[in-house]
Task: structure prediction
Amino acid sequence: MKQVIVFGNGSIAQLVYHELMCNSPHQVAAFTVDREACSSDSLFGLPLVPFDEVLTRYPPQDFAMQVAVGYVRMNRLRAERCAQAVELGYQLISHISPAAITWADLTVGENTFVSPGCVINPSAVIGSNVFLGACSIVAHDCTVGDHCFFSDRVTLAGGVSIGPYCYLGTSATVRNHVNVARESVIGAGAVILADTDERAVHMGQHAECLPITSDKLNLA
Result:
């Protein structure tokens, strides 16, 4: 089992580090980021090295990689770094948390991360370079395309198709047999009941502020 280099030093990379170290057979050896993002030389006591040095310091014959950045530029930064890592010869690992509920026929691509508490039902297919946030639900016969990012508690009903390069915010919900087109943004709490257009942005309604103060409410 190769040790792993984590690309990233932000919140997603830190989450991935803890999950890999605590709940996987992989051991993280170092972090790497673009040189301009190297604000220090270590993270969690491990080396943090510029990406342009990682090949010589951590050669791909001895180390694998997990690209763990967020949804910057509609996930394109993560996709670009995955492609660069593969071009350098690195194997991109995927991780499914042992605290997730999955089935034997689950198919996931490379560099995909399934967080604790996720439920992925039978006949679902998860693409490459996908991040599923904690407690997300992917129902039966769903397809999640490459380079997608789900925040926590996203829910897909049965037969949903998510195109590549999509972002779904916290607690977003998609009704059964709906197609979310590529590069769509589904905001936190949004409920999608019909197919979306490419690059569409759907935001949930904000809660109404009532003309009353909390001390006047009868909550008994």
